[in-house]
Amino acid sequence: MNIEEVIPKKNFMLYVKAEDGKTGLFDVKPYLESEAFAPLKDRSEFERIRNGKYFVEWDCGADLSADTIQARWITENKNTEQIAAPVPRTAEPGR
Question: What count of Cα atoms within 13 Å lies in the side-chain half-sphere of residue 29?
Fold first, then answer.
């Protein structure tokens, strides 16, 4: 995935738009307890994000790869504007 746009949002979320047009939200909160990401608890630091296309990075040295974002983001469905959910597993016939 190549990142076309990244925008810091409230509650330590990132709005991410990929080059293929997919959009979604990435939650940075789980990372804030690590030493590298701790400075981002300051909102002004969190908002100083740079887009490197294959990664995003902050002035404090914290960074996230596009692969990490893609693996953990919550994508938006443009037709319904709802958050996409995993398809539920169905039982095998005869069970």
Answer: 7
Give the CATH H-level superfamily of domain 3-76. NE0471-like N-terminal domain (3.30.2020.10)
- Widest Cα–Cα separation across the chain: 57
Q: What is the pLDDT of residues 30-85, one digit of tens each?
A: 999 999 999 999 999 999 999 999 999 999 999 999 999 999 999 976 543 433 33
Check the CA dihedral 78-30-4-43 and report its sign: positive
Q: Is the pTM of this model over 0.85?
A: no
